[in-house]
Write a structure and sequence with these properties.
The structure holds two protein chains of two kinds.
Chain A (H helix, E strand, L loop, with lengths): L1 H4 L6 H4 L9 E6 L11 E7 L2 E8 L7 H5 L8 H5 L6 H16 L5 H29 L3 H22 L19 H25 L3 H7 L7 H6 L5 H5 L6 H4 L20 H24 L18 H6 L1 H11 L8 E9 L2 E9 L7 E5 L1 H6 L2 H5 L4 H11 L3 H5 L1
Antiparallel strand pairs in A: 1-2, 2-3, 4-5, 5-6
Helix pairs in contact in A: 5-6, 6-7, 6-13, 6-18, 7-8, 8-13, 13-18
Chain B lengths: L6 H12 L3 E5 L5 E5 L4 H10 L7 E9 L8 E9 L4 E9 L5 E3 L8 H12 L2 E3 L40
Parallel strand pairs in B: 2-5, 6-7
Antiparallel strand pairs in B: 1-2, 3-4, 4-5
The chains are: A mainly alpha, B alpha/beta.
Amino acid sequence: MTNLENNTAANSSEFLSDETIDGTITTLNLGPTHPATHGIFQNVLKVDGEKILSSEQTVGYIHRAFEKLAERRPYNQITPITDRLNYCSSPINNMGWHMTVEKLIQADIPKRAQYMRVIIMELARIADHLVCNSVIGVDTGALTGFTYVFQEREKIYDLYEEVCGARLTTNVGRIGGFERDFSPRFHEKLKDFLKTFPKVLNEFDSLLSRNRIFMDRTIGAGPISAQRALDYSFSGPNLRAAGVDYDVRVMNPYSSYEDFDFIIPVGTQGDTYDRFQVRQEEIRQSLKIIEQAYNNLPEGSYKGDVPEFYLPPKDDVYNNMEALIYHFKIVMGETAIPAGEVYHAVEGGNGELGYYLISDGGRSPYRLQFRRPCFIYYQAYPEMITGQNISDAVLTMSSMNVIAGELDA
Amino acid sequence: MKNSLTNDAVLQQLKSEFGEAIMSSENPFDLLTVEVETSKCKDIIGWLKTNPELQINYLTNIGAVHYPDLRGRELAMVYHIHSLVNNFRIRLKAFLSIDRPEIDSIVDLYAGANWMERETFDFYGVIFNGHPNLKRILNEDSMDYFPLRKEYHLEDATREDKDDRFFGR
C-alpha cells in the first residue's frame, strides 16, 4: 500500500530503548486470565525491566476436542462445531465446511447460492477485521473507535439474524446452499449497511490511521519478515502484512470468487501497523466484493439439488413420501456418502482455514482435521516479541488476532 | 491463478529422484497424494522445498490418521505442502507402526512444523525424532493416552441404544 511507504524508514530501534534497568531478570505471568490478552492465553515472560527476553506459551485452555467430536457426528451436525473455531467470523467456517462436503459429494451449487455465500462471508470478514482493528485501538488506549465500530458489527449481526436467526454462533446455511432466500428485510438492511458503513469506516480510519500516537505505538511493534512468516506457515492478513500476497480466494477460488474484482493489500514490515492497515484495506475490498455480488445477484435457486443432505421443506415432509424418507435419513444420519479424501481451504478471517476430511462411507467422517491458522501462526509469537516491551507484546497479540476458540479447537 | 505444474510431472520427478521410496500415488480430487517410505519422508520434504523448479515450500498442514486394521502400518502421517509460486499442492503420506511410531521431525525445515508435530504427538503419540520440545500442547501433561486414536468411544460404551451398527459403522 502506498500510504505505508512513508513510514517504512521508521524501524523498531528508534522507538525501543536498549538500556537495561538493573540486569535483574523477572519472571512474569501474562495470563491465562488477563484483560489484555482478550482470551485465555498464558505467556510466561522473562523480563528485564520492561524488556522481554524470552517467552513461553501455554495453550489449550479451551480445548473442546472438536476433531474427536466430529468423528461421531453426522455431517450436518458438524457445522455448529465449526462456529466455535473462529467465533468472530463463524459464517466463513460454516460455509467452508459445507463446501468441503459438497466437494466430496460433488454437488453442483447454483450461482445464486454461491453469490449469497460470498455476501455473507465477506460480511463476516468485515466483522472479524473490525473487531481486531478496534481492539488494537483499545490496547493503545483509544476506546472510542472500538465502541463506535461495534455499532456496525451489530448491524452485521442483525444481517446474520435475518438470514439464519442466530448472531454469534451462526450455523448459517446448509450443505447444498441456504435454508431460505434472503428476506426483504435483509435486502433493506444490507442496502442500508452498504450506504452507511463506508462513512463510519472512514471516520474510524481517521481516528487511528494517521494518528501520531497510534503510529508511534504500532510501527515497529511485533514485526516479522516475509521469510520467517512463510517459514512459520503464516497465512491471511498477518502474512500479507509481511509482504506476501497469498490469499486463498485468489489462489484457489471457491464459491465464484473468480467473478469479482478486488485487490489483495500487502504491507512491507509485518509489524502491528501494517497488520492494522492490511485489515483496514481488506474491509474496503470486502465491501467492494459485497457490492459486486449483490448488484449482480443471479436469478435462480438458493440451494443445490442434494436431497441426501438438504432437509426438505416441512410441508413436503408431511405430505410427500419421498420427502419424509429423506427427512428421516438425514435426521437419523443414514445418508449414504462416498468414501474419499478431500482437502478444502477457504480464506478465513485469519488466513487459510483448511478442512482435511476422510470419509469411509459411514455416517460420520472417519477423520476430520481443521487447519486452524491461529494455531499455526501463534507459535511465532515469542520470536516476534523478544526484545520488545510488554505493552508491545500486548499489541502484537491483538494485532495477530489470536482467537482462543480457533487456537485450541 | 495458473497452475504451471502437473501432478504427473511432479510425480515423475519424485520417482526419478527417489525411486523406491515413492511407494504409490493417487490423485483424489486432483490433489497429488504420494505414499513415501517413512525413513525418506524428511529427505523428500526437504528436496521439494529446495528444488528451484518445484518450490513446494509452504507447509500447509501436518496431521495423522489411525487405521487400526492395517497391521504394522496403523498410523498414517499426512503432510500437505503447497507451492505458492506454482500454485501446486501435494499431499505426502508415510505409514508408521503403532508399536514404534517414530518419524523424523521437520522442524529444522519448517519452523511452523513445531506445534503441528506437537499436536500430532499429543493426539496420536507419534514420536518426532529431533523435535526440540516434544510435549503435549492442547491436552494436559499428565494425560497417559492419545485421544484421537481409534481406541476410545466418545459416548458411554455401555449404552445399547447407541450401537455403532445402527449408524452405518
